[in-house]
Amino acid sequence: MMKRLVGAVVLIGALVGLTLLALTEPAPLDAKALPAGLAGDAVKGHYLFWAGGCASCHSAPCPDAPGRSCAKADDEKMMLTGGVRFRTPFGEFVAPNISSDPDAGIGGWTTLQFINAMKRGISPAGHHYYPVFPYPSYQRMTIADLADLKAFLDTLPAVSETPGEHDLEFPFNIRRGVGLWKLLAVDGQDFTPDPAADENVNRGAYLVNGPGHCGECHTPRRLLGIDTALAPLDHSRWLAGAPEPEGTGFVPNITPDGITGIGDWSQTDIAYALESGFKPDFDTLGGTMTKVQENMARLTKEDRLAIAAYLKSIPAVELKKP
Amino acid sequence: MKRSVVAGALGAAIIMCAGAIATTAMAADDPITARKTMMKNVNAATGVLVRMAKAEIEFNAISAELALRVINTASQGYGELFPDGSEDGGQTEFRAGPAIWSNRDGFNTEIAKLQNASAEALVNPPTTQEEVGPALNSVGQVCSSCHEGFRLKN
Predict the structure, then answer these.
(1) Structural contact between residues A140 and A206, judged by C-beta atoms closer than 8 angstroms
(2) What is the mean pLDDT of residues A290-306?
(3) What is the pLDDT of residue B9?
(4) Fold of the CATH domain B2-153
């Protein structure tokens, strides 16, 4: 009787285990997904480097503030040493070296491997990346854009030092578990333009949803009715503001809501704020947004206006900062 | 219309400069009020330049230069307004970040950057509406950079 019970428990345990393994199995794109003769354009990739904000997380940490980068000049921003430490409820993540070094960085990666990292959150060794790397947004980028970006990254200096490892709480240190989270958060879809919107709004939508990854900070996360950092983005409150990922403060509501959002900002106000850092009250965009604004300042005026047009077009969501 | 704008801007600048001198004198007594006032003045000056850059108000070379001078004035000795013991600025929208005291060198570097950026912009102040944006941005980067590391939201 006891033997049967133990046998049943072991069997059920094995079945649950196998199911979990199956559910969390990484599903990378294979070479067939790439068009024949795909060649990246590093000049276009340079532009995407700013649009995607790579330097903000992957350049060297401030000596007296390891939670952020102090890179200001272009050459500092292009030394992708990694090392910035992100303190989250799950533990501390360390941004990796993505310089062109073939061992310490991504210099040895193929374009397909880079695309799988960005669109599927899967490493060349076939492991899941933690979504502190915002691939749920980057997955919306086109294969052509990603090839261009990789071509540009390949031209940047090589850094041979590896920064530290993540320091995570149990059970978040079980990397395979990210596969469960991905079932909810990574749909593998490309960006689809809205046929009802004009070209400008769609361009802004691509920049915001894809390389800009704005939603990662500006959208709340919710699962089964509970607001939690563990959840995927709550698209019903898209860009309506959220607690800062690193604990304190609140990332603003950038929907057109008149009171809790930026409804009183004109399209020109939004574009100008991205260009200069100055809001309509002539104060500066603050905190972590400074880095973003430095990147946005490198885009064309048309692209900033497109982002603004998109932000004026999304649903106004009333979400007050707590 | 133009004369009164110039007169108004001139008057405002004189008052701000006098205010700057007065607040420096008061600084020893109440550095917190002094530094908040200075930044409000900078905000007003920035507002003139931003509106000109966006072509929301008419460009005026004298006012643009005055606005840059107000910003430059604020940067002179700004660090003196954060003596030890003045850490608690109260609960208005923003407050001075603890990094000002724990990383005094870093803070002083930011102030020096503002002095230099505004002085640089004054070497060749804007003579057309198109020149306001670039001049403002060269200074604005320092505003953002200092606020990023050294100012907190309440």
Answers:
(1) yes
(2) 97
(3) 61
(4) Four Helix Bundle (Hemerythrin (Met), subunit A) (1.20.120)
CB A241 within 8 A of CB A252: yes
Q: Would you kindly state where each structural domain of chain B is located, as residue ranges?
A: 2-153
- The DSSP annotation for A276-313 comes to HSB-TTSPBP-TTHHHHHHHHTTS-HHHHHHHHHHHHH
Residue A260: strand, helix, or coil? coil
Chain A residues near residue B133 by CB distance under 8 angstroms: 275-276
At B15, is the pLDDT very low, low, confident or very high (cuts 50, 70, 90)?
Answer: low
Cβ neighbours of B132 in A, within 8 Å: none
What does residue A88 show for φ and ψ, rounded to 5 degrees? Answer: -130, 170
The predicted-structure confidence for A216-266, as pLDDT tens digits, reads as follows 999 999 988 888 888 999 999 999 999 987 767 899 999 999 999 999 999
pTM: 0.90
ipTM of the complex model: 0.82
| Separation between Cα atoms, residue B71 and residue A8, nearest integer Å | 77
Residues with Cβ < 8 Å from B19, sequence gap 6 or more?
B37, B41
For residue A268, list chain B residues with Cβ-Cβ distance below 8 A: 54
Question: pLDDT per residue over A150-179, tens digit each?
Answer: 999 999 999 999 999 999 999 999 999 999
Q: What are the pLDDT digits (tens) for B28-86?
A: 678 999 999 999 999 999 999 999 999 999 999 999 999 999 999 999 999 999 999 89
CA–CA gap between residue B75 and residue B46 (Å, rounded) = 14
Mutate to test the interface with A, among B40, B50, B100 (most CBs of A within 10 A): B50
Distance CA A122, CA A27 (A): 8
* Domain residue ranges in chain A: 36-190, 191-322
Inter-CA distances, A198 with A193, A202, A266, A273, B106, Å: 9, 6, 18, 23, 46
Contacts of A62 in chain B (CB under 8 A): 149
Residues 120-139 of B with CB under 8 A from A: 133, 136-137
Q: Does B103 touch chain A (CB under 8 A)?
A: yes
Alpha carbon distance B87, B97 (integer Å): 8
- Side chain identity at B136, as an amino acid letter? L
Integer Cα distance of A179 and A183 in angstroms: 7
Q: How far is CA B82 from CA A202, B29, B54, B108, in A?
A: 48, 12, 34, 11
> How close, in Å, is residue A291 to chain B by CA atoms?
9
